[in-house]
Specification:
Elements: H1 8-12, E1 19-21, E2 24-26, H2 31-44, E3 47-51, H3 56-61, H4 66-74, H5 83-93, H6 103-113, E4 117-122, H7 127-137, E5 143-144, H8 152-156, H9 158-169, E6 175-179, H10 184-195, E7 198-203, H11 207-212, H12 220-224, H13 228-235, H14 237-257, E8 259-260
Parallel strand pairs: 3-7, 4-5, 4-6, 6-7
Antiparallel strand pairs: 1-2, 1-8
Helix pairs in contact: 4-10, 9-10, 13-14
């Protein structure tokens, strides 16, 4: 498979062949192609769809969290999030055009350059509120709807989470960014998909916290050197060091067996 073998319609409809990554799979596309796919979904306005970036940690965690497998399977697009995933996809697909696509890049790109109605959900404490305010201050083109902060007690209470799902799905948002971390954001996304009539649900990890200033993203030069993972470990070693190290054996196994799938996930 090469880039020329995938039509624009396939890319935009999430039907481009995926790269099998153990229990998960990823969409071998560029950043601009993912953005074009999201635009196409919003313009169609037919039903709710899911965007789930796939990173190395998810490959390992998926063995204990089947909700990740289901979320990636249901996703219209599963961008390659993290340079190890990009490297595997490029090698298997023989395509250097495949790019890293993170929630932290998608959120500002869409909010600053599209006139969609956008809802921010999650993040630490009041990060969603602060992130929305910060994006408005930067001159956001999107209409930012009232944010949902999702405190832990709300997420853990089934009845309150049901009410949260109702508010999200009835908000009228074109794009909903879910920043609760794995696997909470995927659980919430799948629950929303069960009842939502429209909307693009994007699992975005720490993106909301980055915009709000609750976490510091690696500088551009660090990302350019493909060392953002090391920056994140240094910024929060207690939480992230073990997670990243434990993902290495699975990443090696997945890399050896990765292959191009016929069609979607």
């Amino acid at each position: 498979m090469t880039r020329d073998d995938i039509s624009n319609d396939q890319r935009m409809d999430g039907m481009a062949p995926r790269i099998e990554l153990g229990l998960l799979s990823a969409s071998p596309l560029s950043f601009s192609e993912i953005i074009a796919g999201i635009d196409a979904i919003v313009e169609r306005g037919q039903g709710a769809e899911l965007i789930t970036p796939v990173n190395a940690t998810m490959l390992h965690v998926a063995h204990d969290q089947p909700v990740l497998v289901e979320a990636v399977r249901r996703a219209s697009l599963a961008p390659c999030d993290g340079w190890p995933i990009v490297a595997i996809a490029r090698r298997v697909a023989r395509d250097r055009g495949i790019e890293r696509v993170t929630g932290a890049d998608l959120l500002p790109k869409i909010v600053m350059e599209r006139d969609y109605r956008v809802l921010l959900v999650g993040g630490a404490r009041d990060a969603a509120l602060l992130a929305a305010a910060e994006l408005k201050k930067r001159g956001a083109r999107a209409e930012l709807l009232p944010s949902e902060t999702v405190p832990p007690e709300e997420y853990s209470d089934p009845e309150r989470r049901k009410q949260l799902v109702a508010r999200i799905t009835q908000s009228g948002a074109d794009i909903i960014f879910l920043g609760l971390g794995i696997p909470k954001q995927e659980v919430l996304a799948l629950q929303c998909l069960e009842v939502a009539q429209k909307g693009v649900y994007v699992c975005c990890g720490a993106a909301i916290d980055f915009v709000a200033g609750f976490q510091s993203r690696a500088p551009g030069w660090v990302r350019g050197l493909k060392l953002e993972w090391l920056w994140r470990i240094a910024s929060n070693p207690r939480r992230l060091a073990g997670r990243y190290i434990s993902a290495v054996p699975e990443l090696v196994r997945v890399s050896r067996r990765a292959r191009v799938l016929d069609g979607g996930a």
